[in-house]
Design brief:
This protein is an alpha+beta fold. The chain has 1 helix and 4 strands. The protein has a single domain, classed as RNA polymerase-binding protein A (Rubrerythrin, domain 2). Strand 1 and strand 2 form a beta hairpin. The two termini are about 20 Å apart. It binds zinc ion. The site of zinc ion has 7 residues, from loops.
Length: about 90
């Protein structure tokens, strides 16, 4: 099987949970992506980070639940995106 060319996009979480997404080269890069660990809006450009991080410091059990659900949902989104790109 032939691998399509990929690119790595770095996202900077306002809470310091930087992460990297691997996308197809032709995929559109979203400037904002919810952090898989704390659901804060992570950005490709760290200069655009705001002080919204302050709102997430006092975490509730609900926040922690969302945090655990974040990664599988992110992967599901990515899979759907890849499927659409392959079909196009
Ligand atoms: Zn985070």
């Amino acid at each position: 099987m032939e691998m399509a060319p990929r690119k790595r996009v770095e996202y900077y979480c306002p809470n310091g949970h930087d992460f990297v997404l691997t996308l197809l080269l032709e995929a559109e890069v979203s400037e904002v992506w919810d952090c898989p660990r704390c659901s804060a809006p992570a950005r490709t450009n760290p200069a655009q980070l705001t002080n919204q991080a302050d709102n997430t410091r006092n975490r509730t059990p609900w926040d922690m639940l969302r945090e655990r659900r974040g990664i599988p949902e992110l992967e599901q989104l990515l899979r759907e995106q890849l499927k659409e790109l392959r079909a196009a």
